[in-house]
Amino acid sequence: MNREDFPLLAEGVYLDSGATTQKPYQVIERIDRFYRNENANVHRGVYELSAKATAAYEDARETVARFINGNSDEVIFTRGTTESINLAAFSFAEPLMKEGDEILITHMEHHANIVPWQLLCERTGARLKVIPVDREGNLDRKALRGMMTEKTKLLSLTHISNVLGTVNPVKEIIAEAHDRGIPVLIDGAQAVGRTPVDVKDLDADFYAFSGHKMYGPTGIGVLYGKKKRLERMRPYQSGGDMILRVTFEKTTWNEIPHRFEAGTPNIAGTIGLAEAVRYLEGTGMKKVEAYEEELMDYALARLEKIDGLEIIGSPAKRSGALTFTLGDAHPHDIAHELAMKNIAVRAGHHCAQPLMNYYNVPAATRLSLGLYNNKQDIDFLAEALPEIREKFKL
Amino acid sequence: MKDQELYQEMILDHYRNPRNCCSMENPTHCAEGDNPLCGDHLEVFLKVDGKIIQEINFQGSGCAVSQASASMMTENLKGRTVEEALEVFDKVHVMLTGYHPDEEEGDKSLGKLEALSGVAQFPMRIKCASLAWHTLKSALKEEAEPATTE
Ligand SMILES: Cc1ncc(COP(=O)(O)O)c(C=O)c1O
What is the ipTM of this complex? Predict the structure, then answer.
């Protein structure tokens, strides 16, 4: 749908939206307009231009908050999901941890939701525990229940897997964790822009996502945090903007969420992100979700028929991503041949090496969808694959 | 998009029938190489006698380009001196990162290895082709000592 809104799609078949989405001209033009007509620093000048930029920046916060049903003072702007998770690790989790405490993640996490916790464990003596995933690619809920103990200080898991496409039942999982008093962080990088996200309904303590995976610009992302959590958290980076008052003896932190946004922010990126939100609201997230679901069913049906093609996992609920192997052909060779036909897919380990090791594939090929894809894109891909399999047969 | 065929017949042949593709007992030199981006993994083993590379094997997993490059490398270097091997390394490196054999006169010493020259046009594949060579270099840099089984 809305294909004509995306200028770069004229270049070929783009099936790598899980890495980053293309941008609609509404977003591109909004950023252009900001630099042409509204550019100034925020929260500083008294002149009109600065007031305008500050208003646009804070309005963007409200727009993003509305989109995920949070309050605007619960929306922290970051560089992306990775920084959001690092922020939560440093400012929220680290002060809570004692030696022997535990952090739970799952076997299907992106490196961005593994490495910050490993480093945190090194610093604090806490332990990282990994919730298993079954062969279908569903989380082992029973194991999870057993692993939540009084030692567990945090559960951090992905909403949608960037490799398997698994949609985790995060609302139920959060409720179970809360029953045991465990706060939960959700990595929503693959979810926002694919499915309606309501942080209040989910009751997530933290929810992290990236602008560039939801039709917005790179370099901007969000950490949503419940107000009662944010208020008790220590600052992340320090400098200008995150303080109320500075003397050489003492500094008073600014209010939330500004306490967590040191320095001049990514103003244009934030405004571009808000435009992407308006774009998605205009289309309707329910509609986007239903459209992509139908397309994914079509892709599954078409690819399943290809000889030698094996889809990794068959989760109970799938969204966005489909990862496969194809006979003897190495994913790099597959992606290369597809690129020669102007079809963009991703090859490699998808920043999820532990998951790939579990399935015993060092690398695989992934197609991932955006709202602009159509059945013809899938057809082009499906028609190209058998020949590639032949070419690289051993 | 470039329409040049990366997978020359020579490359596909070495990919399908890799030469010297097995482990080695008591190598004098060996090293492992990884290409973290794509998960390619390679081991190179050598038996160097005096200065001559008497035997050279490789083993590992990866795309057609990385496997073929490794196979062609072993074929090319067997019987050469270590010094010559390092010269070939330098020439291959230049070729992969942008030298086009048909644009320069003279130096045709790479022979069959020139089948790999197409890689230069695909920046994302240069690492695939150079993995074996970098692994070779790190093996040769090591002192001649019994290989560990690490
Ligand atoms: C599930 C998941 N988490 C985290 C990230 C990291 O996002 P970013 O690189 O935008 O910080 C990604 C990006 O691929 C992802 O797919």
Answer: 0.81
